[in-house]
């Protein structure tokens, strides 16, 4: 049982690259795997094309390998994919005007949440703070009468 668990951990992620998609040249295949890990499956959205079983991811893997076989550099392959599918195809999109909301959105949500909590706590504190105006003589007399009528100290 322990040996089976050790083998399962040693195997690592399998990925979705099919044997017929792999290149014969190990160096080119290693480059393809490196680039494929940086490209997003546009169907699955949070998986790289190497990890996705979607048909489109398979097409992207084949296209990537065709570009490498044609002699493109890693950056040329990535630029080709971005030109064809937009920056959405990158798992780590660059910071620019189109992706500003993507990069700054979590910080804006955190700031808005902090402001909301601050407003809530301030309102809560003011709801429990004592009245700033003291009781009038008539109000104090009425309060004393209520205490006496109910035998309160």
Break the fold down into its secondary structure elements and pairings.
Blueprint: H1 2-11, H2 26-36, H3 55-69, H4 74-85, H5 100-128, H6 137-149
Helix pairs in contact: 2-3
Structural description of this entry:
This protein has 153 residues and is mainly alpha-helical. It contains six helices and no strands. The protein has helices at 2-11, 26-36, 55-69, 74-85, 100-128, 137-149. The termini are far apart. The model is unreliable at 7-14 (pLDDT under 50).
Which short descriptors sum up this protein?
Helicase, Ruva Protein, domain 3, rod-shaped, mainly alpha, 6 helices, 153 residues
CATH fold title of the largest domain: Helicase, Ruva Protein, domain 3
Residue fraction in strands: under 5%
Structural class: mainly alpha
Number of strands: 0
The average pLDDT value, as a whole number, equals: 81
Helix and strand pattern: HHHHHH
CATH superfamily of the largest domain: Cytochrome C biogenesis protein
Number of domains: 2
Radius of gyration: 32 Å
What is the class of the largest domain in the CATH system?
Mainly Alpha
User: Roughly how much helix do the residues carry, as a percent range?
Assistant: 55-70%
Counted by DSSP, the helix tally is: 6
Distance between the termini: 74 Å
Low-pLDDT segments, ≥5 res: 7-14
CATH architecture of the largest domain: Orthogonal Bundle
Inertia-based shape = rod-shaped
Largest sheet report: none
């Amino acid at each position: 049982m322990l040996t089976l668990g050790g083998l399962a951990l040693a195997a690592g992620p399998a990925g979705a690259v099919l044997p017929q998609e792999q290149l014969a040249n190990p160096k080119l295949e290693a480059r393809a795997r490196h680039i494929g890990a940086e490209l997003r499956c546009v169907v699955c959205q949070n998986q790289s094309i190497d990890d996705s079983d979607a048909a489109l991811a398979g097409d992207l893997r084949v296209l990537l390998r065709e570009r490498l076989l044609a002699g493109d550099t890693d950056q040329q392959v990535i630029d080709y994919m971005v030109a064809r599918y937009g920056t959405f195809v990158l798992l780590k999109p660059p910071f620019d005007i189109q992706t500003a909301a993507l990069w700054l959105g979590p910080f804006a949500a955190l700031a808005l949440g902090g402001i909301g909590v601050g407003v809530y706590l301030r309102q809560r504190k003011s709801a429990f703070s004592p009245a700033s105006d003291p009781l009038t003589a008539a109000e104090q007399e009425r309060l004393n009468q209520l205490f006496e009528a109910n035998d309160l100290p």
